[in-house]
């Protein structure tokens, strides 16, 4: 098998095996996922997958993250994964526009004991980011919000990320739509544009992983 074709097609039984053989079964996060499914219906699919949350926690810890930002918080699952990785004196800024969904998030942040590390800003995330100091002070970022602004979020966060800091971007495979030439929707085009930029961006080291709906990890040079 050549390195160009070295991958495994994952069906449901194999995916279940993957989940069972990692540390992906946190009771509190499982409870939050269940409540999200009950209250959010089809929108529950916006929540990160368990293995992605585990990976995010691991990466934030490895990066020694103390200052983090999340663009797109929903019901708070990914924020818990990040906040658990930063020290008590660290800080996670969460950006979202929904009071309804983030009300669920706030209650689970309290249950997880991380609410003291999190600031939630409701409103357009781009304005929130641009209001931050211009210096490179962020250690860790997660982008998972409106796709039309992905490139803007990336650029604004990148200039505020320290050397060695990490930026994670979700949904970069967009259920495979990035390869569908017939899909010319604004969201798909925005994801393709960012994917193409990162592939040749010499400001970062980057890898795209087939985790959940696709996750790109960038390290600021």
Structural commentary:
- The chain has 221 residues and is α/β, with parallel strands linked by helices.
- It has one domain: Vaccinia Virus protein VP39 (Rossmann fold), CATH 3.40.50.
- Helix content is 39%, strand content 20%.
- The protein contains 8 helices and 7 strands; from the N terminus they run H-H-H-E-H-E-H-E-H-E-H-E-H-E-E.
- A 7-stranded mixed sheet has the order 3-2-1-4-5-7-6, with helices on both faces.
- Helix 2 (27-40) packs antiparallel against helix 5 (99-112).
- The radius of gyration is 17 Å and the shape is globular.
- The relative contact order is 0.12.
- The mean pLDDT is 96.
Structure keywords:
221 residues; alpha/beta; Rossmann fold; 8 helices; 20% strand
């Amino acid at each position: 098998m050549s390195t160009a074709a070295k991958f495994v097609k994952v069906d449901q039984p194999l995916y279940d095996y993957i989940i069972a053989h990692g540390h992906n079964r946190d009771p509190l996060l499982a409870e939050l996922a269940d409540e999200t499914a009950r209250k959010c219906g089809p929108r529950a699919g916006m929540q990160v997958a368990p293995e992605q949350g585990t990976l995010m926690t691991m990466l934030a810890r490895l990066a020694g993250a103390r200052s983090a930002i999340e663009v797109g918080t929903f019901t708070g699952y990914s924020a818990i994964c990040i906040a658990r990785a930063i020290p008590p004196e660290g800080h996670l800024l969460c950006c979202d526009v929904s009071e309804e969904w983030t009300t669920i998030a706030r209650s689970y942040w309290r249950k997880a004991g991380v609410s003291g590390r999190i600031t939630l800003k409701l409103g357009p995330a781009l304005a929130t980011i641009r209001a931050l100091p211009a210096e490179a002070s962020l250690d860790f970022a997660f982008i998972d919000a409106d796709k039309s602004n992905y490139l803007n979020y990336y650029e604004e966060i990148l200039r505020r990320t320290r050397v060695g800091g990490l930026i994670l971007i979700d949904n970069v495979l967009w259920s495979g739509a990035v390869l569908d030439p017939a899909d010319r929707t604004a969201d798909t085009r925005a994801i393709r544009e960012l994917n193409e930029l990162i592939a040749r961006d010499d400001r970062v080291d980057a890898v795209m992983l087939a985790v959940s709906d696709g996750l790109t990890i960038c390290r600021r040079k």
